[in-house]
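Dear Dr. L.,

I hope this message finds you well. Following up on our conversation about the binding site, I have prepared a predicted three-dimensional model of the protein together with fe (iii) ion. For your records, I am including the exact sequence and ligand specification that went into the calculation, followed by the structure tokens. Please feel free to forward this to your student if that is useful.
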Amino acid sequence: MLNISCLPALSDNYIWMLDNGSDALVVDPGEAVPVLAEIERRRLQLTAILLTHHHGDHVDGVPALTARDDVDVYGPTGSAATIPGVTCEVGDGAELELLGQRFEVIAVPGHTLDHIAYYGAQAGAGGALFCGDTLFSAGCGRLFEGTAVQMHASLQRLAALPDATAVCCAHEYTSSNLAFAVSVEPDNEVLARHRAACRVLRAADQPTLPTTLGLERQINPFLRCAVPTVVAKALAQGCVGDTELAVFTRLRLMKDGFQMLT
Ligand code: ZN
Ligand code: FE
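The resulting structure of the complex is given below.
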């Protein structure tokens, strides 16, 4: 089993690190300093970098990390030409062997067109998903390049993974996502309890992540587009039709305009 840790970076990013006690990989290093400090502190060897998409807050640390060590840098198909440092392009269905474990690449377009996620069934206790800016706790990524159709399909693929999967998101957006989720489902008790627990964590400056897919299925409105109360809320807010896709599309628009009051 691999250890999973998260390194806070920039204003609200997390760089996820996996290690086996001697070698380590990191996902989406938006800056190098927190990674260098951690591998120094724990005397680890950085052997690989996994990139989920091309945004600067996920890739800008790559050059400083590859200048130092011999590191394999995995990125989406086409990224060798666009993201400095990428040595290995990987697309949907690719299987990687990293730190002695198997990882699978899942294409998840929506936030960007090139977005991919990495899933390791043996990483952490119940498997781990590194989903960048696609799935957040109680939320999902904004649609910068892709369509609602794409993002909805991407989230459905991620939601098909096992309940115990540790969901390692690239941002600490949980508080604002939970505020929106509660506005959609004011009577969801699991959601209310989780929000209270996250308030305690954030007050102590602790991450609310990783979350699990099992929990997200209970609290994340974007994974709950078939739940009658969520459908009713979307319809009341102008949703045309009650298909899961229509509800998802309306929720994403509602979230874009949502102002957190607390
Ligand atoms: Zn992004
Ligand atoms: Fe980001």
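In brief: The domain at 3-169 is CATH 3.60.15.10 (Metallo-beta-lactamase; Chain A).

With kind regards,
A. P.
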